[in-house]
Amino acid sequence: MDRQLNRSTAILAPVLAVVLGGGVTGTAVAVPFETARAERQLTVQEQVLDGRVEAVHRATVSAQTSGRVVELVYDVDEFVEEGALIARLRDTEQRARLNQASAALREAEARFSEAEAEYERIRGIFERQLVSRAEMDRATAARDSARARLESARAAVAGAEEQLEYTRVRAPYAGIVTERFVEVGESVSPGQPLIAGISLEVLRVTTDVPQRHIGAVRDLGRARVFHDGETPVDADGLTFFPYADPATNTFSVRVDLPVGTEGLFPGMFVKVAFAVGERERLVVPERAVVYRGELVGVYVVDEAERVSLRQIRAGRVLDGGVIEVLAGLDAGERVALEPVHATLYLKEQRETTR
């Protein structure tokens, strides 16, 4: 019986240690949830600035030949595939020029064939010394002249085909139509704007960096773009303008976004966080922080495995799923990673101590 009594005492001692807060000597029972320690971590210091999104690929497609507009395939805000037909001009004149050039090419081919045959005939006779050198030279000149006219005719056909192709205006890249400058029935001339468009595949952000930060921003070369609380987008690269605005003492910087970035459109305002240095911060896992009205806190577990809710002043959420703690917590203190379970455990702890 003494052995059984000693065993029961050994089991109850840790519980009494928790309940009495150290009044009984023994090892405290570990809390039934996961914990982590607040620790100091070297993190990137950032300077947040305003920026504007713009499209890298934006262009105004102009007419390259004259003619009357007979078809406009797309309207404003419609998506266009790369190489798709976006406008068509009347091509009667261009097609007539192509037919004329093609006929001239056929004539030149016939002339060249005739001159080539004559040259071969004269050369055979000349080799038998039956004709003079002058006759051979005339045959050679006639053949070379016919070849030159043939090359000229081929170039004329290529030019006429190009002019005909100019009557079918195609999209230089995939994008969205932003403006139409002409309507069906209007006559246009070379250089006249037809349609403007942008591509949403490749975007960038332009912003102005103060002179006091440009050195650090240039050296570190890292930035993130924030929009409406969404997950930040890491910049693909930075482009620095080599001069400052004399009125504002700022340098223009272009922040390249990854291809295919969604949720952003040209003209939108965003926040750009530039890396300007590093500093040590006290951090805890983000999932350890609880929000109750205006209270922001964490459940702290002391060395005796007692749980208490402590208010903290939280900073920004950092990479790696951690959040900065500005006040209310010291390095090395343990916090609960499961606030719901910690709440239930704290309630049971209070009821036990009554």
Q: Biggest sheet, open or closed, and with what strands and sense?
A: 9 strands, antiparallel
The tally of beta strands, per DSSP, is 22
CATH top level of the largest domain is Mainly Beta
If you compute it from the alpha carbons, what radius of gyration comes out, rounded to the nearest whole angstrom? Answer: 40 Å
CATH architecture of the largest domain: Beta Barrel
Q: Roughly what percent helix?
A: 25-40%
- List low-confidence stretches: 1-27
First-to-last CA distance: 32 Å
Overall pLDDT, averaged?
Answer: 85
Order of secondary-structure elements: HEEEEEEHHEEEEEHEEEEEEEEEEEH
Domain count, please report it. Answer: 4
- At the fold tier of CATH, the topology name of the largest domain is conserved putative lor/sdh protein from methanococcus maripaludis s2 fold
